[in-house]
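Quick one: co-fold with guanosine-5'-monophosphate.
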Amino acid sequence: MKGGKLIVFSAPSGSGKTTIVRHLLEQPELNLAFSVSATSRARRVKEKHGEHYYFISISQFKNHIKNDEFLEWEEVYRDNFYGTLKTEVERLWAEGKNVIFDIDVVGGLRIKKKFPDQTLAVFVKPPSVDELKIRLKKRSTESEDKINMRIAKASVELATAPQFDKIIKNYDLDTALSEAKQLVLDFIKEPTTETTD
Ligand code: 5GP
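Sure, here it is.
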């Protein structure tokens, strides 16, 4: 596989990475397209198939794994599988786009490892784990149980931050948004030399 740049945003759930990614997608000069992941988790009310995720069953997901159709995949939470289909990235590259990912830390680092020079891997750091909990509760998309599961995972995820190319502290959203835009602008200006199979 070869093509344009890959921009990965990873962070614990509730850190604000999705807001940052959505903002970047609205900047035409970045020429970004969103990598729609496949997932086996249930669709939330406002989510659309093919726009936020490709919502598939666990058995369909396992079939894609068996057929080696994922660039990376992860059981992010128990029975909730998430993955990037190779066809998704190829489709966006064919459109001449740089591809932006909103994925978990393990998946993000996997993409960086597969395409080291082509990828900018950014970690979004929340002010604290307590603040994460407040944000997740405010969002009200998950049950108390699921929020606790996400919080329990956050400390492990925070420990991976130093492995990323850049860390953005999302303490103040406007500052984080402009920092993110500048990072991506600088990165997409650099020439790419790498190709990988
Ligand atoms: P949510 O259920 O809140 O949409 O996502 C849960 C976590 O899974 C988030 O950290 C999200 O970024 C991550 N995620 C979404 N898509 C993918 C993917 O394709 N691969 C991996 N590894 N993680 C993903």
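If it helps, The first helix runs from residue 17 to 25.
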